[in-house]
Amino acid sequence: MHFVLRAKIFVVATIGISLVLCQSVFGEARQTPVSTQRVILFSSGVGYFEHAGTVKGNSSVELRFKTEQINDILKSLVLEDLDGGKAGVVVYPSQDPVAKTLRSFQVDISENPSLPALLNQIRGVKIKATVHGEEISGSILGVEAKQKAVGEKEKVIDVWVLNIISGANIRSVSLDDVQKLEIEDSQLQVELNKALTTVALERDKGKKPVTMNFVGQGERRVRFGYVVETPVWKTSYRLILSDVSKDKSHLQGWAIVENQTENDWNNIELSLISGRPISFIYNLYQPLYIPRQLVQPELYTSLRPQTYEAGIGLAQEEEAEQFAATDEVSLAEEKLAARKMEKAKDFAAAPVMGGIAAKPLIKKPMEPIHSIASVADAGQIGELFQYTVGNVSLPRQQSAMIPIIAGDIQAERISIYNQGVLAKKPLSGVRVINNTGKHLLQGPLTIFDGNTYAGDAKIDDIPPGQERLLSYAIDMKVHVDASKTKQEDTIQTGKIVKGILHLTRKNVFTQEYVIENKGDKDKVIIIEHPFRLGWKLSDSPKPIETTDRLYRFKDSVGPGKTAKLIINEEMIQSDTIAILPADFGQLEFYSRSGKIPQKVRDALVKAMELKKSMLDTQRKISDKQKEVSEITQEQQRIRENMKTVNQTSQYYSRLLTKLNEQETKIEKLQVQTDQLKETYEKQRKDLEEYLLNTSVE
Predict the structure, then answer these.
(1) Residue 94 above 60 pLDDT?
(2) What angle do CA 683, 687, 690 make, to 5 degrees?
């Protein structure tokens, strides 16, 4: 419909008006181009970017950022006018929730209304509708759905009808018959087009312009910087081992950086910092609204007017304090930032040269040591370490490898054995001492031995002066047998304190490593032995180093030779045993242990004698109780028989006599049992008193 076409035209016009208004806010501001001058990348995933340029008079600088970067810009942006001018207002598009913005217009299109719903929103607005060539002018009375029968079967469908009031007449026209619909209310046209413009801009969420204004006279130098999220710069290394000396191995380090910004880097100063400053995202871009409580007016029955006595009032003073948050951007020291290395003058992005004439194949092994030179200047910044590279050129959305380390390093060839890694074979490795004077960040390490690829390793952060072990392959020329182990548990001593036997035990664990060198060269072996909490080394070689998880022992094995490493560990344990409830056999075992002092064993023997008397008495009590139980069962049998026998018979009399005899015996047994229980209690008290008063060592 013509209405839709006109809406699109008004969208374009509205955008044009908006741009003019934005430029006219600051008078005669001129757009000034700027370039990236300095980039500082941190290993924590953020980067500081500094731009510089020249402005004249009142000027503005515009940069476009990804929408997700705006929060970082608002949090960290800093501006400076170096020649007496002032930084003005920074303008950026708002990110108010689009639904809230759309509801603020006279026409609400937030729910994507249909044409009938839209026309119902603007009831009363003057329009001009063209129907079958006839123009109908008037005001919208409303839109309603009417039922209409169509087809041969007269199927009923809904037809939308627009009701227009023109003077004293009401015209009803089908919306399907309307060829053109014009809104004659200019203010409503503007509101509708603003709403449509908001919808159109909402689709462009990718990038947002940020305009920085500078106010001043004449030509001036300006610069500004900010911190945004960046890809973490990474490092990779190459280690070329030397057969001559462990001090002549060569290390190359490369920094991998990515320009994921919207600007080319042309001859910038690039700093790579191996620190991890705390950085976070704070939601400053999204407008926030605090929900407020809805308070309903309270209704009361009319009251009589009240009178109150005069009181003493307290004056209240309100003080408003303004706090300005200043974000500090950690920059490199001036001497490092200004240092331009001669060796890096020619380091820039350059086109690939073609047309190179073919030459005969070079059969000499590749020697990359002499072709790579570091272009980075390294230095310490507080707790951080920085590599600075001058004259870096890197187009946007491109990545680069930059040589930052090239020099000799101490690397000793070793074999590293850990039973938990491989049961019978050590790993070929090197002990690296960082004598480069530079901080080595974590990253992959490719090792070349004799100009041949030997394997890969991974290094952690290595500050200057520290050393690390690196493994890169399985050493097939060395065999290690760690199957022989032995564990002993012996009693060292014992004592008795108030009925408690305190024992001191010594656990000894022995691990034997048999190392066989089947190669034709000397081998330096590092044995990694588990570190166990509570155990300590005893009669063992001294480890070269200890971590929280293992010991490291060093040994040398000649070609075709076998070496043996025996590691003894011991742990002292203390056990306590209550003598009174203890098992008799357990006490007998400790009383015969030669490691326990004689006085303690004698006390144990005495306690055993008292305990044995108690056990004998307890056994007699059990026997008496058992006998009573057996007689009781026999009485039950006799009583059952007596029920079936004539009471005047001789057999009945005999059963009755026997029952009486058994009753007499039970009474005697019960008396004896009670006496034994008294004896048992006396023996128990004697034992308890003895133990309580006995303390021997």
Answers:
(1) yes
(2) 135
- Range with lowest mean pLDDT among 10-14, 129-133, 615-619: 10-14
d(Cα 378, Cα 405) in Å, to the nearest integer?
A: 9
Beta bridge partners of 85: none
Phi, psi of 473 (to 5 degrees): -160, 170
Backbone angles phi, psi at 594, to 5 degrees: -70, -15
Compute the distance between CA of residue 142 and CA of residue 160 in angstroms, rounded to an integer: 10
Q: Is 165 exposed, middle or buried (0-12, 13-18, 19+ CB in 10 A)?
A: middle
Phi-psi region of 355 (alpha: psi -120 to 50; beta: other; left: phi over 0): left
Give long-range contacts, CB 8 A cutoff, 24+ apart: 557-560.
557/478, 557/515, 557/516, 557/517, 557/522, 557/523, 557/525, 558/517, 558/522, 559/517, 559/519, 559/520, 559/521, 559/522, 559/523, 560/517, 560/518, 560/520
Q: Which of 157-161, 308-312, 552-556, 689-693 has the lowest mean pLDDT?
A: 308-312
Q: State how far the alpha carbon of 555 is from the alpha carbons of 231, 485, 522, 523, 524, in Å.
A: 44, 20, 11, 8, 6
Q: How confident is the model at residue 81 (pLDDT cuts 50, 70, 90)?
A: very high
The four Cα atoms 358, 362, 368, 371 give a dihedral, to 10 degrees, of -50
CB-based contacts of 86, cutoff 8 Å, min separation 6: 214, 215, 216
Query: Is the dihedral angle over the CA atoms 105, 106, 110, 112 positive or is it negative?
Result: negative
Burial of 188 (0-12, 13-18, 19+ CB in 10 A): middle
Q: Give the position of tokens 């070349």.
A: 448
Question: Burial of 538 by CB count in 10 Å (0-12 exposed, 13-18 middle, 19+ buried)?
Answer: middle
Report the candidate in 140, 142, 141 with the shortest Cα–Cα distance to residue 183: 140
What is the value of pTM for the model shown? 0.61
How far apart are alpha carbons 510 and 538 in whole angstroms? 10
- Supply the angle between the helices 650-692 and 598-642 in degrees, to the nearest 10: 160
Q: How would you classify the pairing of strands 377-381 and 265-273?
A: unpaired
Count Cα atoms within 13 angstroms, Cβ side, for 570.
Answer: 11
- Nearest CA among 546, 539, 550 for reference residue 506: 539
